[in-house]
Predict the structure.
Amino acid sequence: METTTRAGSTRNVEARLVEVLNDRLTGAVVRPEDPDFEAATLIWNGGITKRPALVIRAATTDDIVEAIQFCVEHDLEMSIKGGGHNIAGLALSDGGVTLDLSLMRDVEVDVEGRTATVAPGCILGDVDRETQKHGLATTLGFVSETGVAGLTLGGGFGYLTRQFGWTVDDLLAVEIATADGSMLRASRTENEDLFWALRGGGGNFGVVTQFVFRLHEIGPEVTAGLIAWSADEAGGVTDLFRRVTQNAPRQLTLAMLMRNAPAAPWLPEEHHGKPMVGFVVNHTGTPEEAEVDLAEVRSFGTPWADIIQIKEYAAQQSMLDATQPKGMNYYWKSEFVSELGDDVLTTYRTQIQGLEAPANQIVLFHIEGALDEHPEDDGAVGNRDAAYACVIQAMNPVADVDASEGNRDWVRAAWQAMKPFSTGGNYINFQTDDEGEERAGEAYRGNMDRLRRVKSEYDPENVFKVNRNIKPI
């Protein structure tokens, strides 16, 4: 079996050694000729064409340790696949070994202690399903098929961020397998530097085998959904977004998006394909509180559609899944923004003028609140001055090469237009495969030097390098 080494050269690993490894696993080794290889290497972003030489499907923590030792012993490049939802395709190692954790999806909820212990292959929907049985939730993202591990290790934000902070602000402890074969526990009182680095520093320090999250009383019902207007009303709607978010209680989260209207059943057919502006809404308070807090939004202008309603929180968490189907070609850019001046909103509105792409959009997601109450260095995620996440997103079928190139050009142009309003930071989980060290440095800002020191202690040989890589000193 010809594989890629960590240095990028090729090496032949004898078939008998792979068989020995397979015999030691509770899970299994999957080779390119095996019938389940394609499923084991399927990821969300279809524009990523990397193909591993071998997949190790772990079923236990011991399997994870075996996989790490195998790759270290034979100097093989290794990637880690949880949910496979990273836009840069970091789940796959081209020609190397992919450690697939997707079989490990247990969630244990301690109702009295208000914690959830989560296995590394879980997706957000796994956690929401189990915690919502008890009216509890932790701060996760907003697409239910996203992997918990990748989301968390990159910092994480979602509908509950205004109330509780980054996802890593709800992270209480982890268990992690490191490059030397050790199993460690990290928390605010154990291996504190490692825990600090894992709260935003990505997969650079080992393979997390268990996450322990703090839970909050949320749901099971919330007032949530979406409201949309014609882009002809964008000037007033963007002012409305600024006004409401500046004064909103933390139980209300709004995300504003501009795009061409999708052919969705909740939109009248005559509006399909026409420019629109909309709010995605999540309110975790009582229906009476939501009615008051959303009154100005729901009475503004002439909405094309208003599907804000009382619904299950878990349903809200999966509402956007259909807008990001697996296998399409995705390309994004992001920046954090601290305030919405007139120049910001004017520039924001301008980006969809004349846009013909059916699925591209530019989003402003309100995240200001609890995250800003922590010190800047409380976790490697940093970016405690962020009030909004600006995300510029493109999507098209993989086979449409012309659309792919045009979409990338549009994303880059819109990004450059919005970048002057950035705090200087961006969301590491939304970095694409063509972004390098400088961009990672912008995401981590003043925390990079400390991250490199922790990397040098726990992974001095850079075994865990298929990520937004932090090089050891």
